[in-house]
Specification:
With 187 residues, the chain is an all-alpha fold. The protein folds into two domains: 4-63, 434 Repressor (Amino-terminal Domain), CATH 1.10.260; 71-171, no CATH class. It is 65% helix and 0% strand. The longest helix has 31 residues, at 109-139. The two termini are 28 Å apart.
């Protein structure tokens, strides 16, 4: 538990905040922040929640109740979305299985997983809709339908490029919500 102060300092510095700015934003005494970062005291209850709100993290992530950092699992998790290349809706099924098994034991997986799954669900619906509409318009010889095929190819390419890109970013230490999400079905 005596790592809390170190974690708060690292997160504060990563956000580019001084101790004074953190104290002011969190409405906490500056001396309290100094004591926490020097491991002279541990933040509890309201103080911890106020600091976490300013740092845009959950208190559980700082306290790490049995959680561990596992960058390689996060990388595999991102790449699991590529399962759609071999299995229909594998881009949802495989990440969902990986997420459900480890979301409470790996730091950051809960948020990253929900973000990835929301994107994959929306992507699947859009992709299925575009290829189905293309097929129907082609069968019925209805107007210019080629654009729907290009949309399908674009979406397909996007779902190959994004997981690889985000796996590389995760390997470099960037593990935030990277996927664009319009609709949040999973939280």
């Amino acid at each position: 538990m005596n790592e809390i102060g170190k974690k708060i300092r690292e997160l504060r510095e990563k956000k580019g905040l001084s101790q004074e700015e953190l104290a002011e934003s969190a409405k906490v005494n500056l001396r309290t922040i100094q004591r926490i970062e020097n491991n002279e005291s541990e933040p509890r209850g309201k103080t911890l929640n106020l600091i976490c709100a300013v740092l845009d993290i959950h208190a559980e992530d700082i306290l790490d109740y049995g959680k561990q950092a596992d960058k390689s699992y996060l990388i595999i998790f991102h790449l699991s979305a590529l399962a759609f290349l071999a299995i229909p809706v594998g881009n949802i099924i495989l990440p969902l299985i990986l997420w459900m098994n480890k979301k409470d034991s790996i730091i950051g997986l809960k948020e990253v997983g929900a973000n990835l799954l929301n994107f994959q669900i929306v992507w699947s619906v859009l992709t299925f809709t575009s290829i189905t509409a293309f097929a129907l318009f082609k069968i019925m010889h209805y107007g210019t339908y080629d654009i729907l095929f290009y949309i399908f190819i674009g979406l397909y390419a996007l779902n190959i490029i994004l997981p690889i890109t985000f796996a590389i970013k995760t390997n470099k230490g960037i593990s935030e919500n990277l996927y664009p999400n319009i609709i949040k079905l999973i939280k």
